[in-house]
Amino acid sequence: MSDLATHSLEAQGREAIQKGSKSFAAAAALFDAQTRADAEMLYAWCRHCDDVIDGQTLGHGMSPVADAPARLEALYAQTRAAMAGRTPTDPVFAAFQTVALRRGIPERYALDMIDGFAMDVAGRRYATLDQLLEYCWGVAGVVGTMMALVMGVKPDALSTLRRAQDLGLAFQLTNIARDIVEDARNGRVYVPGDWLAELGVPETAVADPAHRAAVAVLAKRLVDAAEPYYASARWGLRDLPLRCAWAIGAARGVYRQIGLDVVKAGDAAWDERVVVSGRMKVWRALEGGVLALRSATLDRLGPAPERPAMWSRI
Length: 314
Hints:
mainly alpha, 0% strand
């Protein structure tokens, strides 16, 4: 591929992350140039696949699509073709292919992500937290794992990849907590069915304002469930280059803050979308830098604590 073509793909990836997620864009800016370009191109592919299934643009304006199964099969086919080395016609898949080949991303990880979107197409419901975590792996945990490979983690460094997986799981649990009502309005219910039953919230009435107090309780449970995964992910920073550790530490802090803000807002958390203030993002970015420095120095003086007995795919 020519340098001009590569720069074009990188520019498209940067545009996708800047429009799709300001938080991730800010974190990615802390990477070195090559890692940043690869992370942004990987993000653009993940964002594209999600948008195709959800009928949205760069994560905004979800709307049901009538041909979701056909779209899903196309994503599988295009991804398999890209991983097999065939020249993609879609620039998003060309960018993904570039990153996958350069960073040694296994095909199974790419397909696991699309398997997560297949659960949405099937309208799957989740009876327990463990079942929900299977979904979280597909749409976020495996993305964290692929991002770790982009940052130079070796495919056989399983202990580090598990920490990266954990951060993705924590991010997705936070997303679900923030978006419970919006998702329910679009026919998506991710809260474990046994939790809904315990609080007397019908699956078909999650978005009903009459259940807002119970939904606040459910959101807190999701945020609480994310905490052990955020804690585990913190120990993966020591195995990353310093700039990568800073970027991931910053992203971890900002996303964890979203969950804390949802819990703090209580019943009012869905009056408007919860976002982290610019000042708080700066604070969490600085905090992430301190955490990265500590991980590169003090944390290396002793072994990392064992990962708690939690859900894992790796």
